[in-house]
């Protein structure tokens, strides 16, 4: 079972992950360790850009609420789930 | 636009991976068709090789050659069945290794490997065309030799030989993947492959009966997958055993095929992971 990501948890990209933005929107993440590829949608790419320099979960969500037009009420839960997926696939690291 | 972020793993399911294989086949057929001279030169070389051996065969006393199914054979008959399997090995092995090398030299290896396609699909796709062409080429070669040089080959043995070669393919493919891993790691590792193939050929019954080898080499030759495939081919084509030659041969080849594939897949995965980590995948 995956651990719940707290509000002050520090989110950083994994050193072994590189990404490319796609012309048609969204992007592709490559885990250099496993050689596995993942596609992310435009919101996923925005999340990826926002954690470029590392930030806490709360900072990330407030940035998203500011940037996304008409953010849904369940944005926190969606982002938590998304980050959980990325962590599970070793694309990001969650500290604290 | 949804505000829900999403991540999807690639490559997608097995069926989607399998759909990519015909694209590799089409590409390699078109490449072969654009180099028609090389295609004809390959056949001319094969026939020239048989001409040389048919002349050498005049110096060989047929009584020194083993008989198959109670039938004595000429040296040409003996050697062409060996050449058929040996050239099958050389071409198939060369193609498996060159599939990676050519991508490296053309600068398309990195592009291909950054597509959402599994490395195994790329390897399988790269040899798809040859999997179809090389067994066909071997059978056509045997038919041509039979017509041009009067070699007495049992026509009923051709299909059983194709079955033996089909089981021989994973043995070759595994060796090819080890060699491809060597090419990725050492850039020019194909030279070492040539040496290993040469040793395997000398220690087999391809060009001469293994009885003339020293005692210690004879027992090793009996375990050589080339010897096993050649022996089965001769039993089917020269001894008239047909399907009777298939099971004893594939019973010995199957475990070798399994181990060869396992080692090959492991070696190639290790080499790809290492090169990706070092960022030197496209170096050659």
Written description of the protein model:
The complex is a heterodimer of chains A (96) and B (284). The model of chain A has no long low-confidence stretch (mean pLDDT 85). Chain A has a domain at 10-14 and 43-95. In chain A, a hairpin with a 4-residue loop joins strand 3 and strand 4. Chain A has helices spanning 42-50, 57-67, 75-88, and strands at 10-13, 17-21, 27-31, 36-40, 55-56, 92-95. Chain A has 96 residues and is of the alpha+beta class. Chain A has three helices and six strands. Chain A is globular. Chain B has one domain. Chain B is elongated. Chain B has helices at 14-18, 21-34, 36-56, 75-106, 109-113, 119-149, 158-186, 190-202, 215-223, 225-237, 246-278, and one strand spanning 7-10. Chain B is an all-alpha fold. The termini of chain B are far apart. Chain B has eleven helices and one strand, in the order E-H-H-H-H-H-H-H-H-H-H-H. Chain A binds chain B through residues 16, 28-30, 32-44, 46-47, 68, 70-72, 75, 78-79, 82, 85-86, 89, 91, and chain B through 1-11, 114, 116, 119, 272-273, 276-277. Strand 4 (36-40) of chain A pairs antiparallel with strand 1 of chain B.
């Amino acid at each position: 079972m995956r651990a719940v990501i707290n509000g002050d948890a520090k989110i950083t990209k994994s050193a072994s992950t590189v990404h490319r933005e796609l012309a048609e929107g969204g992007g592709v993440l490559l885990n250099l360790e496993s050689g596995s590829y993942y596609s992310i949608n435009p919101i996923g790419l925005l999340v990826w850009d926002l954690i470029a320099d590392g930030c806490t979960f709360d900072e990330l969500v407030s940035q998203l609420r500011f940037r996304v037009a008409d953010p849904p009420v369940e944005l926190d839960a969606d982002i938590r789930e998304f980050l959980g997926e990325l962590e599970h696939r070793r694309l990001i690291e969650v500290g604290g | 636009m949804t505000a829900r972020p999403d991540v999807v793993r690639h490559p997608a399911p097995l069926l989607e991976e399998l759909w990519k294989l015909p694209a590799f086949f089409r590409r390699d057929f078109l490449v072969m068709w654009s180099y028609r001279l090389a295609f004809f030169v390959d056949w001319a070389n094969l026939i020239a090789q048989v001409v040389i051996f048919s002349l050498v065969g005049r110096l060989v006393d047929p009584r020194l050659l083993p008989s198959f199914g109670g039938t004595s054979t000429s040296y040409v008959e003996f050697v062409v069945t060996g050449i058929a399997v040996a050239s099958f090995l050389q071409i198939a092995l060369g193609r498996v290794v060159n599939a990676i090398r050519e991508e490296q030299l053309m600068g398309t290896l990195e592009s291909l490997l950054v597509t959402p396609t599994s490395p195994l699909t790329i390897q399988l796709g790269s040899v798809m065309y040859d999997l179809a062409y090389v067994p066909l080429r071997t059978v056509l070669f045997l038919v041509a030799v039979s017509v041009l040089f009067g070699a007495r080959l049992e026509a009923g043995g051709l299909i059983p030989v194709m079955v033996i070669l089909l089981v021989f393919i994973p043995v070759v493919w595994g060796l090819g993947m080890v060699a491809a891993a060597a090419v990725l790691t050492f850039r020019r590792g194909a030279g070492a492959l040539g040496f290993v193939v040469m040793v395997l050929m000398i220690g087999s019954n391809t060009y001469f009966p293994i009885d003339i080898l020293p005692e210690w080499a004879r027992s090793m030759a009996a375990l050589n997958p080339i010897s096993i495939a050649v022996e089965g081919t001769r039993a089917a084509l020269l001894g008239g055993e047909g399907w009777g030659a298939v099971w004893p041969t594939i019973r010995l080849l199957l475990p070798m095929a399994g181990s060869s594939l396992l080692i090959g897949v492991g070696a190639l995965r290790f080499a790809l992971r290492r090169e990706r980590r070092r960022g030197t995948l496209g170096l050659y």
